[in-house]
Amino acid sequence: MTPESPLTLHDWQQSLRGAARPEKIAILSSFFKCGKGEYGEGDQFLGIVVPDNRAISAKYYALPLDHIAEMLHSPYHEFRLAALLALVRRYERCRDDRQAIVDFYLQNTAYINNWDLVDLSCPKIIGAHIISHPESTLLTRLSQSTSMWEQRIAIVSTLTLIRAGIFEPTIAIAESLLSHPHDLIHKATGWMLREMGKRSEQHLTEFLTRHAAAMPRTALRYAIERLSPEQRKHWLATKRK
Fold first, then answer.
1. Same domain? 237 vs 148
2. Nearest to 195 by CA among 149, 161, 172, 218
3. CB 35 within 8 Å of CB 41
């Protein structure tokens, strides 16, 4: 059962606004590609850095889900991140509430709409859920979505499985995303393959043997980043022009 919280949504928002650094707004807007035609177009920033956001939002995990939803639906990027950081803490602390958190997360993926929002939340919620529900087809469904963010959730959530020594979902989803057109998916896929290779170079080598020639160059470079210079040279040489 979720504990009662004496804190309020207003407290949370005011605390975050108090941590804002306006001089960082332009930097963050550029970093998260908020210009016209970019993937983060229209996103708004207050200038709150992640460590400050995490420290503040950890206190508000017990608020009702409709209050967290209000934060997640905010036009401010940092409020949405705050909601997700609170959800992660709630998932970790409130075992009886976990299915409701997963359901809430999946119902609100339209608002988990930048790479940091995905990466800082999905391994500890969706990935953790899959560890305890290995029969679930959730990752496959997300990987087949028309939403790039749901596809990124699918591949990045496998980080939790990789750390548990489970590599098959990463391999399957990476294979399904090889022809994806967006660089953010290429980066995420290569990142997960690299993480897999840190724990099993054999699995990475087998994947590269099958797919290196056809992989997007960004995905390949991310995947081989921790290999020896000789190995990196070999795999890059197999890449089709």
1. yes
2. 161
3. yes
